[in-house]
Amino acid sequence: MRLFLLGWLLACSLCSAQTTSLDYYKQHAIKGVPTEAQGVSFLVLGDWGRNGHFYQKEVAKWLDIASYQLDAEFIVTTGDNFYDNGVASIHDPYWITSFENIYHYPHLFIDWYPVLGNHDYRGNWQAQIDYS
Q: In which domain of life is the source organism classified (predicted)?
């Protein structure tokens, strides 16, 4: 009986978590974003910030909502992904502080295609290609 009750509570909490998640996206829907898009849907992001400053975290949250609404297939960056001097390698701490810790929302776990800018070329530009 205890095992049944534990299983039932677990199932209810999982269903509740899914409903809460979908409700969040419905409550924060971006007006004007088409819901019945035809063709390829993708997002474009440029000069994405540094270590979560300059509204980078807020932009990431809204990017996630837009990705959900559009059912985006991938994200293209337009350069200057890492200020001031790009990244040194695929193990550079900027990957954690300026990318992984920021763009961690579920609908951003899609392919990213980086275009490099002048700040990115100051570092190891190949590392950004390899990381993506």
A: Bacteria
- Non-local (6+) Cβ contacts of 30 within 8 A are 62, 65, 66, 69
Helix locations, 42-124, DSSP H = 56-70, 94-95, 118-121
d(CA 62, CA 64): 5
* Closest among 114, 111, 109, 108 to 127, alpha carbons compared: 114
* Nearest-angstrom CA–CA distance, 20 and 15: 9
Backbone angles phi, psi at 36, to 5 degrees: -115, 55
